[in-house]
Amino acid sequence: MKTIVYVDGFNLYYGALRGTAFKWLNLNKLCHLLLPKNEIVNIKYFTAAVSARPHDPDQPIRQQIYLRALKTLPSLEIIYGHFLAHEILMPRADNPAQLVKVIKTEEKGSDVNLAAHLINDGHRGRYDVAVLITNDSDLLEPVKMVRHELNLPVGILNPQRRPSWVLKQHASFIKKIRPGVLRASQFPAQLRDATGHFRKPATW
Prior knowledge:
- The protein is an alpha/beta fold.
- The chain has a single domain, classed as 5'-nuclease (Rossmann fold), CATH 3.40.50.
- The chain contains 7 helices and 10 strands.
- It has helices at 9-17, 27-34, 59-70, 110-123, 140-148, 165-170, 179-183; strands at residues 2-8, 39-47, 76-80, 82-91, 99-108, 129-133, 154-158, 173-176, 190-193, 196-199.
- The strands form 3 sheets. A 6-stranded parallel sheet has the order 3-2-1-6-7-8, with helices on both faces. A two-stranded antiparallel sheet has the order 4-5. It has a two-stranded antiparallel sheet with strand order 9-10.
- Helix 4 (110-123) runs parallel beside helix 5 (140-148).
- The radius of gyration is 18 Å and the shape is globular.
- The model has no long low-confidence stretch (mean pLDDT 91).
């Protein structure tokens, strides 16, 4: 069955990759291991460019190296959202009566972009099966539209410890992304593209 996989990059990272040794993830290999009977014609990766932070100034460099690795996969497309940062007042954890000014960073656009591509591709007949790598319940409505209005199956590859209850109710199938398959889906430490050779970041 002709399949497009839609990857919620930040949901995948914070659900399954952060704090692990599996961040150098080959999404093409991951999808083929988890969906061995599907003909994966396209993987769409939704993310946003991160900014340097005082405690982690190299974060944007590591992200760009990883995106460069993803671009070596011929079936993969990267679609960008963006970050918004603004100051807000929030109560202190140890003294809720006292407000402190903090910088709140929010990733914007990826869920909307994913939903738009999911529905548009379905209307255009680009897949027989859609698969989402996410656990974001905000995507429930587009999942329901594809399932019940386009009559197409939508599966979920869940990167989180527990699946979203509402997505579980409406998905055609759901599989958990386990550490073993992440371990088996790593890029080689050194890769080559049109620009030359590059390596996995030494620390992550």
